Amino acid sequence: APDIDIFGTNAYRGDYGFGRLWKGAREEAGKPVFITEFGCPAYAEGKVTQEAEEAQAAYHKASWEDIEENMAFKSGTGNAIGGVVFEWLDEWWKAYEPSIHDTKALWAGPFPDGFMHEEWLGLCGQGDGKDSPFSRHLRKAYYTYKKLWQ
To answer: E strand or H helix at 115, and its extent?
Structure first.
């Protein structure tokens, strides 16, 4: 597709960044890469809230640092042009029961407990839900980006 200017993809690769994605995209498409969506849940089976939020923040930090490392004039491939953090606020309606914040896993993946908990992807939570949709609880991942983006 020679008329396409960039290669975009949703990528959930783990807390080490995006791995071979940059090199593969350069070799196969020869286009700059924009990560259209990446993130990590702030819930992990067997972890307390603080541990899960720490793991979410570490995942986001590694992902963003990998994007930056692969931008032009850095030591990576030079074809990264940015990415979209997914997402700003938890979405309680996504999984099984729209009125509760589900903790059931949706699919296996490279996340702190090995599973995607899609209702928990927000950099902000909604607390226990009784003040939703107005409550905003800023998580550690939010403050991680605040520091990274100074």
So the answer is: strand 115-116
What's the pLDDT tens digit per position in 112-147? Answer: 999 999 999 999 998 887 777 788 999 999 999 999
Sign of CA dihedral 70, 15, 133, 92: positive
Tell me how far apart the alpha carbons of residues 92 and 125 are, in angstroms, rounded to a whole number. 10
- Can you read off the two tokens belonging to residue 95? 């999984």
| End-to-end C-alpha distance for the chain, whole angstroms | 37
Output the pLDDT for position 92. 86
Distance CA 97, CA 81 (A): 37
pTM over 0.85: yes
Q: What are phi and psi of 142, to 5 degrees?
A: -60, -50
